[in-house]
Amino acid sequence: MKVPKVLQSLPDPDAKLLLRAGKVNTYARREVLVHEGDVADSFHIVLDGRAAVQVTTPAGERAIVNILGPDDHFGEVSLLGRDDPRRTASIVALEAVRTLSIPAGVFRDLRDRNPRLEHLVSGILARRVDELSAQVVEAMYDSLERRVVRRLSGLATIYRASSPEVTIPLTQDELSQLVGGTRPSVNQVLRRLADDGLIEVRRGRILVHDVAALEKVAD
């Protein structure tokens, strides 16, 4: 197996040790990979497919806060060394997904012998904090229209294939959760983008006709 991007900074023997300890998991569309609140005992690297990160809101509802694609990862909390760590979100497959799960104990044992792994774990956690901080700033200071455009641009990159058009298989409700807006307000933004010829809204998916133009608007 090719060494995943997140492990490529490690010496080859250490990276291969983690790969040998890992297990490849396959999930069908809409299957839950991990549940929020479960014991966090493994670190997952997405090999193929896309998955949604879902959290429980204070009102008890489910909300999507991020989309993961190949080379993304989750389960960083399992690497902190806390007693009885718990998953902070559920991960749900949006399509067929494969992950490589590595037991947290293997990371901890290797970290005791190799300080370089400590640096890797610290970097993983720091990047996650940076991502969350950026999301908070975006939610507080960016307009809804800008959040929708930037999120669509990011999703177009995740789902981009060889064709100039990109299909994002999310409903308007799911997109509304991602940008922190109401469905009617998000629908108004989508209509304006559709009128400009950038996108097309269909049942259960959004077609991006011009990714480059959308990226310019997002900037």
Structure description:
The model has no long low-confidence stretch (mean pLDDT 87). A four-stranded antiparallel β-sheet has the order 1-8-3-6. A four-stranded antiparallel β-sheet has the order 2-7-4-5. A three-stranded antiparallel β-sheet has the order 9-11-10. The protein starts with 11 loop residues before the first helix and ends with a helix. Helix 4 crosses helix 5 (172-179) and helix 4 (144-159) packs across helix 6 (183-195). It has seven helices and eleven strands. It has helices spanning 12-21, 104-113, 115-141, 144-159, 172-179, 183-195, 211-218, and strands spanning 23-27, 32-34, 42-48, 51-56, 62-68, 73-74, 90-93, 97-103, 166-168, 199-202, 205-208. The chain folds into two domains: 5-140, Jelly Rolls, CATH 2.60.120.10; 142-218, Arc Repressor Mutant, subunit A. It is elongated. The protein has 219 residues and is an alpha+beta fold.
How many separate domains?
A: 2
In what range is the share of β-strand residues? 15-25%
**Which second-level CATH architecture of the largest domain applies?**
Sandwich
List how many beta strands DSSP finds.
11
N- to C-terminal separation?
37 Å
Structural class: alpha+beta
Percentage of residues assigned to helices: 40-55%
